[in-house]
Amino acid sequence: AQTVTQSQPEMSVQEAETVTLSCTYDTSESDYYLFWYKQPPSRQMILVIRQEAYKQQNATENRFSVNFQKAAKSFSLKISDSQLGDAAMYFCAYRSAPQPKNFNKFYFGSGTKLNVKP
Amino acid sequence: IAGITQAPTSQILAAGRRMTLRCTQDMRHNAMYWYRQDLGLGLRLIHYSNTAGTTGKGEVPDGYSVSRANTDDFPLTLASAVPSQTSVYFCASSDEHRVVKGNQPQHFGDGTRLSIL
Q: SS3 helix, strand, coil % of chain A, rounded to 5?
């Protein structure tokens, strides 16, 4: 089974600064998809950004971008110009390429708690 | 507003009691999931359903059961609650009809905080 590792249980960043959250995964598959979810204190799980493994270009969504290193099996999230509202738990997730009639499971990391200091 | 509705939001339950957590989605997603979230462990899959009428076991299925009578509803039942089932439970769904687009994310409900005493 695939495993997803987030080695930083907690991180802090100063408001307006940049922070990078790390995620590594273990897989023998060549085609898969990666996601970052944000969970604020409200407990909602909010999709932040997604990356297809077959794409070499790193995904970007406004202040959020990823550094996808397929050979290293690394998928880090960079948050630029950090805002107080970015404070949350962040989860990295992996899924295999869809297979018809087969279940497609998402594998989640254990999460990184991000604190944003004013 | 389209999405996933979970009920109750929170519940305190005596050990040994039976409890059903409700989950309803209005996005017509074919796949649904139940996770439990525990500190330091992330989200662990309990049960899933590919489509109405079918269910499967996830990573931590013991003590839980599910049913999928229709597309929209996916209740999770604890037949006889034990303190180790104290957790936050999330229901999720995804559109797996789009087999050519694996980048479809899972959509989550707001969770149910369950405490077993």
A: 5, 50, 45
